[in-house]
């Protein structure tokens, strides 16, 4: 029979108390997502969380949807820069919103610390049955013959697909008619129903329509062809000097630095470049990146500059 002395019991209790205090000192890493569960940002965040657990232990993915991701962003903005609170989000709130909103309640550069660009994705120029076109050359010829009559749909004014359309108009020197819808599904229905000629959409969201023949992706917006539709040329290959993509990234609050930043940065570079993670992202239609903090900061700066002119050209200003 094991008999505990008073001294042994006291030491055991002190050890347990010490371990408990240490656990409280290191809460789980929290990854905020500014969109509902099941969406693309949420899926990316949960893939990242699963991969980071070996290095970080318990991780909480916390969905705080609303205001296009701004609710979650402001929570990160207010968090301590200790490496325990980060956000995974698409590029829009960091490179579009500063130009779109009259009064944005955060500074996309000063209020956050870039950690890592996770993956990049591009958009497709999708021709519907009403367009009657099979190539970018045919699209441009039609647009130049009757300026403003060819229409393209998007999930709404001020969205990235909207500005993709504007950037293409500027790059190609044509005039198209923008038709905003309340989301991607209504725009898709309008395209298939013949009510609009084109739409701009994420390639992964429209590849099935392309392969089934219900619609045709006539070009992609990035610098290289998309593996989901390798037969489709880039806009540059089609003669339009345009290269535009979007991305998912991880950010922390301003002031995140030193060991806290280095630990996150190193882990993100490692996990995104692992074959298993790369395979998951590619299957979802994304190009794995796994950048360091400095490269993400440079990508954000480049896209902030890239989108300023097309956004101002639309005159879109949101409250």
From TrEMBL:
InterPro entries: BUG, Bug_dom1. The keyword Signal applies. SUPFAM superfamilies: Periplasmic binding protein-like II. Keywords: Signal. Residues 1-23 form the signal peptide. It comes from the Bacteria. The keyword NAD does not apply. Belongs to the UPF0065 (bug) family. This is Tripartite tricarboxylate transporter substrate-binding protein. It comes from Limnohabitans lacus.
């Amino acid at each position: 029979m094991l008999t505990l002395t008073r001294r042994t019991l006291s030491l055991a209790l002190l050890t347990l108390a010490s371990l408990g205090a240490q656990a409280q000192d290191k809460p789980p890493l929290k990854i905020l997502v500014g969109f509902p569960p099941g969406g693309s940002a949420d899926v990316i965040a949960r893939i990242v969380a699963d991969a980071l657990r070996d290095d970080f232990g318990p991780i909480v993915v916390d969905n705080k949807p609303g205001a296009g991701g701004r609710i979650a962003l402001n929570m990160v903005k207010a968090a301590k820069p200790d490496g325990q609170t980060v956000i995974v989000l698409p590029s829009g709130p960091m490179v579009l919103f500063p130009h779109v909103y009259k009064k944005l309640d955060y500074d996309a550069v000063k209020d956050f610390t870039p950690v890592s660009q996770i993956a990049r994705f591009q958009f497709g120029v999708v021709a519907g049955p009403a367009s009657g076109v099979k190539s970018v050359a045919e699209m441009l010829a039609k647009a130049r013959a009757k300026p403003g009559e060819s229409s393209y749909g998007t999930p709404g004014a001020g969205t990235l697909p909207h500005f993709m359309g504007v950037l293409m108009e500027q790059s190609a020197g044509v005039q198209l008619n923008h038709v905003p819808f309340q989301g991607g599904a209504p725009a898709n229905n309008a395209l298939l129903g013949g009510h609009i000629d084109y739409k701009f959409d994420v390639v992964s969201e429209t590849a099935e329509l392309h392969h089934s023949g219900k619609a045709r992706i006539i070009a992609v917006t990035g610098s290289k062809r998309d593996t989901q539709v390798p037969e489709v040329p880039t806009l540059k290959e089609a003669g339009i000097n345009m290269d535009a993509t979007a991305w998912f990234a991880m950010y922390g609050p301003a002031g995140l630095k030193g060991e806290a930043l280095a630990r996150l940065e190193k882990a993100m570079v490692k996990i995104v470049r692992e074959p298993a993670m790369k395979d998951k992202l590619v299957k979802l239609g994304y190009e794995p990146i796994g950048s360091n903090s400095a490269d993400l900061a440079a990508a954000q700066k480049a896209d902030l500059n890239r989108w300023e002119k097309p956004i101002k050209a639309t005159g879109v200003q949101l409250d």
